[in-house]
Design brief:
3 domains; two-stranded antiparallel ribbon; alpha/beta; 55% helix; 13% strand; 13 helices; 281 residues; Conserved hypothetical protein from pyrococcus furiosus pfu- 392566-001, ParB domain; 5-stranded mixed beta sheet
């Protein structure tokens, strides 16, 4: 099949946080089997055998508004059938594009045979034991987003639990430079998983410790547990200080502030200050 339209344009239309070609072990096969085209929406039809038939109207309207402003950022996937194109993945985007008034939509076109071959190739790769976690997550993401497989479907096909699939997929939420470090340093999924929900500043603080000190998954989890306890303790202390400040301010008719081991009083006038001094005598 022709590869015209692939390459740079192909990469630009597929968000890197979903399927980054650098970590996609079937990228070269995909280019041989796929063709990126802009297809008339009128030439595309949904798969009647797809179990999902209900589409939230408000969600579609919101997506249509986004498409009007930004365009379709991720192409749908279709197969050729009787001179038209049947949707494999991306029916929501297709429906929203119709609402947005688009005439054409970007689509990855594969024959039914090539679609099946590529799916089998991805599944075979996902079952290899030598994959790094990011390559594995990328394989799952490709099955999910280009082959319309649910987490449950993927789990059944690769022989793992649904929660395992979901946890691995979450690694793709890590910043790109962190993914590269993870691969380069051969860091495990268990070690990196606690970082997924953290902000970039926290990740950049903890990651060098993981790499340089060889932190285990247990140590990373303990670090965040201890950090949470300290934060909670500090918050309780601040709340108590605020109550004490209010009570002292009312008692001595002054602005009272507590900071660390210091207690300060601030008066509006010299007379109020003298009255405060006299109250302590």
């Amino acid at each position: 099949m022709s590869t015209k339209g692939l390459g740079r344009g192909f990469d630009a239309l597929i968000p890197t946080d979903l399927v980054n070609e650098e970590f996609d072990l079937t990228a070269s096969e995909d280019k041989k089997e796929s063709e990126l085209k802009r297809i008339k929406i009128s030439e595309i039809f949904p798969d009647e055998n797809q179990p999902r038939r209900d589409f939230d109207k408000d969600a579609l309207e919101a997506l249509a508004a986004s498409i009007k402003e930004h365009g379709v950022l991720q192409p749908i996937v279709v197969t050729k059938e009787e001179g038209k194109f049947k949707i494999v993945a991306g029916e929501r985007r297709w429906r929203a594009s119709k609402i947005a008034g688009l005439d054409k939509i970007p689509a990855i076109v594969r024959s039914l045979d090539s679609q099946n071959r590529l799916e089998l190739s991805i599944i075979e790769n996902a079952q290899r034991e030598d994959l790094n976690p990011i390559e594995l997550a990328t394989a799952y993401a490709k099955l999910k987003n280009q082959f319309n497989l649910s987490d449950e479907d993927i789990a059944a096909k690769v022989g793992k639990s649904e929660s395992t699939i979901q946890n691995t997929l979450r690694l793709l939420n890590l910043p790109d430079d962190v993914k590269h470090i993870m691969v380069k340093e051969k860091l495990t999924e268990g070690v990196m998983r606690p970082l997924v929900s953290r902000d970039e500043k926290t990740i950049k603080k903890v990651l060098p410790k993981i790499v340089e000190e060889g932190w285990t998954a247990r140590k990373v989890e303990r670090y965040f547990q201890d950090h949470k306890k300290k934060s909670s303790t500090a918050l309780i202390k601040r709340d108590q200080h605020h109550k004490d400040e209010d009570a002292l301010s009312a008692k001595y008719n002054a602005v009272v502030r507590i900071s660390g081991k210091s207690l300060t009083f601030k008066c509006k006038t010299i007379s109020e200050l003298q009255n405060l001094i006299d109250s302590f005598k």
